[in-house]
Amino acid sequence: MFLKPVTPLLCTTVILAVLQLTSAGNVAVRIVRETAPYGIFGSNFQLNPRDQVLVAKSKPEKFAGPSHLKRLLGKCFNFSTSDYRYTLCPFQNITQVEDSYRWNAYKGVLGVWQGWTITNGTFASMIYAEGDSCGASKRSVQVTLTCGNHSSLLNVSEPERCKYAAAFATPLVCRDDALLVYPRLNATLRQRWNDIESQRFNDELTQKGYEKELNNIFQEAGFLKLPKEESIVAKPQAASDSTNDTGRAPTRLTDIAVCNAEYEQLRAEVASLRMSLEMYQRSSTLPSMPPPS
């Protein structure tokens, strides 16, 4: 006689019935008439990705930007698609959870608060970087702010692999001056900005130099993350690069005074070359002398 295999349903029903009889009515035990959801390797342990604790590999930078945006600190906002749930905690981090009960469902940190991008004197977007590893790089998110009736995470996309873009709406940025940088600077930095504007107007500063000075101001204000320190030791130049065509060592054009001096020296050299060329041209047009008899 072959014994019929005992099913999980039968085992569950028998065990709970025995417990009910032996409890003497002190504990009400509900008889479960469904089989338990058996998972990996026959156990009923299932990994819910939402139950895992996410740990960022770096701490967020300090709050920086318009002070009225501090109202967003300590709050988090969700956006869900059919596959993923995104959570943005402004000035903290942004995470992604795959809505799946697969054992290897993704759940991770897309980025940690770093600072702003600034365009035309305006806070253009929030940068969340140093997220989970993604091959040889790390995940990052650029969050743009738009005016809205209430604060909400509108959408999240991945235009490039592991580089995400998100849109966040809030009534805190609806005023025309809500994201202007200049009013958020202290008096000293505002004066420096005024000075470089004057230098650019008077053609004393190139566009590249102007942008560099502005970035320095934004970094000192804490709006931009300071770049990683790099070695300031110059690489040795090849012997052929040690002098230029005039035989002089090349001059590093570090400021407007040096540029003016180099310009005057070049003008003198050009004038000398022109004079030599004119003398050569005059000599070549003179009639040749007949040979002596």
UniProtKB/TrEMBL annotation:
One of its GO terms (molecular function) is transferase activity. GO terms for cellular component: Golgi apparatus. It comes from the Eukaryota. Residues 256-283 form a coiled coil. Keywords: Coiled coil, Disulfide bond, Signal, Transferase. InterPro entries: DMAP1-bd (IPR010506), Gtb1-like (IPR039794), Man6P_isomerase_rcpt-bd_dom_sf (IPR009011), MRH_dom (IPR044865), PRKCSH (IPR036607). Residues 181-293 form the DMAP1-binding domain. Residues 74-176 form the MRH domain. Residues 1-24 form the signal peptide. Gene3D superfamilies: Mannose-6-phosphate receptor binding domain. This is N-acetylglucosamine-1-phosphottransferase, gamma subunit, putative.
